[in-house]
Amino acid sequence: MDALLQLGMVSELLPSEAQNSETSVSEAKDYFVSRDGVKFAGTHLIIDLWDATNLADPEHIDAVLREAAIATGATILHGHFHHFGPNSGVSGVLVLAESHVSIHTWPERDYAALDIFVCGECNPYKAIPVLKRGFMPGRVQLAEHKRGLIG
C-alpha cells in the first residue's frame, strides 16, 4: 500500500490506515487565530459605504473587490457578480480560501453594503484603503465581529 501511495495510485486511506498515518487530526494545522489572549476563527467586517461612486459597474466592482481581497492576504477561488440592469445595483461575491467578500449596491442611493470575512492570518482591515480608493465614499460605517470565538 505504501508503494501505491507514493506512486499516487491510491488517494484515500482506509479507516485502519488513517489511524496509523503520520499526521493525526490532533496534529493537523489549526487555522484559528490567537490575538490578545483570544482564540477565534476569523474576523468579519460589516462595511457600509455612503455617498459612494461606481456602484452600477460590475466590472469595476469586481476589480476593486479582487484588489481588496488580495490586500487582506486572502486567496481568491471564484467570483460572481450580477448586474440588475443599466444604472441599477450589483450583487456579488468572491469566494476565498479563507471565506468570502460580498457586496450589494444601491447606486440610486450612493450606498453599498459589504462584508469581508477572512480566517487565519488574513487582515480584513487592509481592504479598507482599497475600497475607499475604488468607491470614493463620503462616509464609511464599520463593525467587527470575531467568528468562532473560543475565548
From TrEMBL:
Task: Please name the catalytic residues of this protein.
Answer: 99, 104, 119
The reply on keyword Lyase is yes
Comment on bound cofactor: Binds 1 pyruvoyl group covalently per subunit.
Q: What class of enzyme is it?
A: lyase
Per the record, where is site Cleavage (non-hydrolytic)?
Answer: 98-99
Q: Which residues, renumbered to this chain, carry the PTM Pyruvic acid (Ser)?
A: 99
Q: Name the catalysed reactions.
A: S-adenosyl-L-methionine + H(+) = S-adenosyl 3-(methylsulfanyl)propylamine + CO2
Q: Which GO terms describe its cellular component?
A: cytosol
Q: In which pathway does it act?
A: Amine and polyamine biosynthesis; S-adenosylmethioninamine biosynthesis; S-adenosylmethioninamine from S-adenosyl-L-methionine: step 1/1
GO annotations under biological process?
A: spermidine biosynthetic process
Q: Which cofactor does it need?
A: pyruvate
Tell me which UniProt keywords the record has, alphabetically.
Autocatalytic cleavage, Decarboxylase, Lyase, Polyamine biosynthesis, Pyruvate, S-adenosyl-L-methionine, Schiff base, Spermidine biosynthesis, Zymogen
UniProt PTM? Is synthesized initially as an inactive proenzyme. Formation of the active enzyme involves a self-maturation process in which the active site pyruvoyl group is generated from an internal serine residue via an autocatalytic post-translational modification. Two non-identical subunits are generated from the proenzyme in this reaction, and the pyruvate is formed at the N-terminus of the alpha chain, which is derived from the carboxyl end of the proenzyme.
Q: Give the record's family classification.
A: Belongs to the prokaryotic AdoMetDC family. Type 1 subfamily.
Record text on subunit structure and interactions: Heterotetramer of two alpha and two beta chains arranged as a dimer of alpha/beta heterodimers.
By its UniProt entry, which NCBIfam families does this protein fall under? SAM_DCase_Bsu (TIGR03330)
Q: List the PANTHER family.
A: S-ADENOSYLMETHIONINE DECARBOXYLASE PROENZYME
The protein's name in its UniProt record: S-adenosylmethionine decarboxylase proenzyme
